C-alpha cells in the first residue's frame, strides 16, 4: 500500500471538486461526486467520472470514492428543463423526474451500509 504524506494528501484532495468534510481531511470517509447524465460521456461533465475513478484508486483503503449520475430531478431548474423537453420525458423508462432519489442514493453511499462500495458510478436517472 502506498503511503501519502500530509502535504501530498492535501494536494490530492485539492483536485477533487467536492465539499470536503472534516472526516475526509482526517483521512477516512466517503467522497461522492455528483454529475449530470453527461458525466459518463466525453463532455463537460466527463471529468467528474474520471476524478471519481482516480480518487477511489488513490485514497483507498481509508476513503471511499463513488459517483452519482443524476437524471432530471424535480427541482425548479429540473422542472423548467423538463417543460421544454416533453419528448425526452417520454423516453425515460420510469416516465417521471426524480424527487429525493439522488439525495437518498448519496446518503446510502455515505453510510456504513455502503462500506464495501468504492470506485462505482451509480446512475440515478429513471433508466434513461
Write the CATH fold name.
Answer: Rossmann fold
Query: What strand line-up does the widest sheet have?
Result: 1-2-3
CATH top level class name = Alpha Beta
Mean pLDDT score: 75
Radius of gyration from the alpha-carbon trace, in angstroms: 16 Å
What is the percent of helical residues? 25-40%
Largest sheet: 3 strands, parallel
Task: Please work out how many helical segments DSSP would assign.
Answer: 6
The count of DSSP E runs of length 2 or more, i.e. the number of strands, is 3
Instruction: State the separation between the terminal residues, measured CA to CA.
Output: 38 Å
| Sequence of secondary-structure elements | HHEHEHHHE
Overall geometry: elongated
CATH architecture: 3-Layer(aba) Sandwich
SSE class: alpha/beta
CATH superfamily: NAD(P)-binding Rossmann-like Domain
Amino acid at each position: 500500500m502506498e503511503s501519502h504524506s500530509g502535504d501530498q494528501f492535501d494536494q490530492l484532495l485539492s483536485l477533487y471538486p467536492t465539499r470536503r468534510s472534516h472526516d475526509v481531511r482526517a483521512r477516512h470517509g466517503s467522497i461522492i461526486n455528483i454529475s449530470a447524465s453527461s458525466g459518463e460521456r466525453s463532455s463537460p461533465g466527463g471529468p467528474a467520472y474520471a476524478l471519481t475513478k482516480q480518487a477511489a484508486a488513490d485514497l483507498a483503503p481509508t476513503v471511499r470514492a463513488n459517483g452519482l449520475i443524476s437524471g432530471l430531478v424535480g427541482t425548479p431548474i429540473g422542472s423548467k428543463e423538463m417543460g421544454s423537453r416533453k419528448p425526452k420525458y417520454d423516453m425515460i423508462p420510469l416516465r417521471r423526474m426524480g424527487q429525493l432519489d439522488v439525495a437518498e442514493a448519496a446518503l446510502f453511499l455515505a453510510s456504513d451500509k455502503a462500506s464495501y462500495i468504492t470506485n462505482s458510478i451509480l446512475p440515478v436517472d429513471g433508466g434513461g
